[in-house]
Amino acid sequence: MSEAGTRRVWRPDWPCPVEAVLRQQKHGGADPTWKRDEDGRIWRGLRTPQGLVTLSIHAEARLGEVHAEAWGPGTQWALDQVPAMLGGEDDWSAFEPRHPVLVEARRRFPHARLGRGGLVMEALVPAIIEQKVTGQEAFAGFRMLVHRFGEPAPGPGAERGLKVQPDAQTLRTVPSWEWLRMHIDPARSRTIVTAARVADALERTAALDPAEADRRLRTLPGIGEWTSAEVRQRAHGDPDAVSFGDYHVAKDVGWALTGTPFDDEEMRAYLEPWRPQRGRVPALLAMAGLHRPRRGARMAPRTHLPAQVTRHRR
Predict the structure, then answer these.
(1) Nearest alpha-carbon partner for 47 in 33, 36, 37
(2) Alpha-carbon torsion 248, 252, 258, 259, what sign?
(3) Closest by alpha carbon to 119, among 84, 158, 143?
(4) Rounded to whole angstroms, how far apart are CA atoms 142 and 122?
(5) What is the pLDDT of residues 61-110, one digit of tens each?
(6) Which residue, among 172, 188, 265, has the nearest Cα to 224 in the 3D structure?
(7) Digit-coded pLDDT (tens) for 103-122
(8) End-to-end CA separation in angstroms for the chain
(9) Which residues pair with 70 in a beta bridge?
(10) What is the 3-state secondary structure of the chain?
(11) Residues 6+ away with beta carbon under 8 Å from 91
(12) Nearest-angstrom CA–CA distance, 111 and 294
């Protein structure tokens, strides 16, 4: 490893499942901003309010500790954010499982937490790219965007091929033909550019009540209920954020809890008793791997990319 970075040791009061919590921030198997090394350390390339940072995190379960190390100008911000990233501010005490399947899932995952990344554009850009397209196309588009227009992460991150998403100024100046080369259509690229123009204001929503953050996010053209929920799940740690409009979520929730897949409105009505904790239901089911069997016809992608189920809406 290169020269040592700045270190922090955090002692959570529960056995923190570091990788499971941080995996929520990963966009596809080859996400260039997220890596896991052979020793189980998670590496993130982040653009913080203080600048770029490479952040390495791993659990020392035997000691009940989480060890973090960071390099770059954003070091202090990232290390200060580690507990929130790993769910240290998340509180499940108000959540009532109510259903035997959820009771069992909660029993199996008593240490589940929702992390709060605190970086809105980091969550928003991939969410916009994932609107209304196949997972294959979305992850490929995000990967190309980061490789072409992002920056190497500081310190040992660069040696590992870790990258940081492009900044707002860069996003505003990507030519239209470059978006198309990345399989990102004009509707989605316009939404990204529009968001980049008000990036500072969007970042400030990380400190707001999730309901107000939702309202402000959805004032932007091209950002609807699904995209806002995806952002609030990752950047805000919002326990009530549900990805209504997703190709799979409603079907999976209905199948797991009633044996019959739901549509969005059926899921909305079914989850209402859990407000303001609705997002914990699909999150807990996903942790438990409870989803309907993936059988039958699949929706084809709109390009030459290999077929994969379309799962996202705006």
Answers:
(1) 33
(2) positive
(3) 84
(4) 11
(5) 899 999 999 999 999 999 999 999 999 999 999 999 999 999 999 999 99
(6) 188
(7) 999 999 999 999 999 999 99
(8) 41
(9) 6, 55
(10) CCCCCEEEEECCCCCCCHHHHHHHHCCCCCCCCEEECCCCCEEEEEEECCEEEEEEEEEEHHHCEEEEEEECCCHHHHHHHHHHHCCCCCCCCCCCCCCHHHHHHHHHCCCCCCCCCCCHHHHHHHHHHCCCCEHHHHHHHHHHHHHHHCEECCCHHHHCCCEECCCHHHHHHCCHHHHHHCCCCHHHHHHHHHHHHCHHHHHHHHHCCHHHHHHHHCCCCCCCHHHHHHHHHHHHCCCCCCCCCCCCHHHHHHHHHHCCCCCHHHHHHHHHHHCCCCCHHHHHHHHCCCCCCCCCCCCCCCCCCCCCCECCCC
(11) none
(12) 28
Joined together, the tokens standing for residue 98 give 């109510």
d(C-alpha 203, C-alpha 212), whole Å? 13
- Give pTM, 2 decimals: 0.91
Contacts of 9 (CB under 8 A, 6+ apart): 65, 66, 67, 68
Token pair recorded at residue 132? 């209304």
